[in-house]
Amino acid sequence: MTTATTTSTTLDAERKDLLKALATARTMLTNTVRGLTDAQAGERPTASALCLGGIVKHVASTEESWLRFVVEGPEVMSFALPDGVTWEEFLAGTARELPQWAIERERDFRMLPEDTLPAVLDRYARVAARTEQVVASLDDLSATRPVPDAPWNEPGTVMSARAVLIHVIAETTQHAGHADILRETLDGQTTT
Question: Distances from the Cα of 135 to the Cαs of 10, 11, 68, 74, 165, in angstroms?
């Protein structure tokens, strides 16, 4: 994957630094799948259910979702539950029905039969390019939005665009570490 990089000199130093850190984290992650087949990208070589292709899919979806939050607001990250399902049931794994967002999140962590590694990487590159466009176009990185209602979000919490970018960098870096362990377990290769 070639990560899109904004080279415009109109970006201030903070935006350049944030985008550079995110590009570095993306490269760390995508290096873990270099040279793999689609089948290898879908293997689960550890006791967890994680696979390398699924991690890349998840990180791309997470970045895309958070940048949509920055542009469109918390409505795009709804965590609504089906009628009659409580958060207690959902969190305990006893809900009779799962919400669509949870189903989609679970699918993101897997290489599905129709997934190919080149397509996964291509999508991630498009998400990266869109992120860089959004960051370049923001009037103010300090602008805030309320986070979506969910049990893992403190009521009344707001996040600035800057905080969202830092969160996406942290999420990407954390998953790059997971991916590095999976790759080493899979075939002994390391990316560092």
Answer: 12, 9, 11, 18, 9
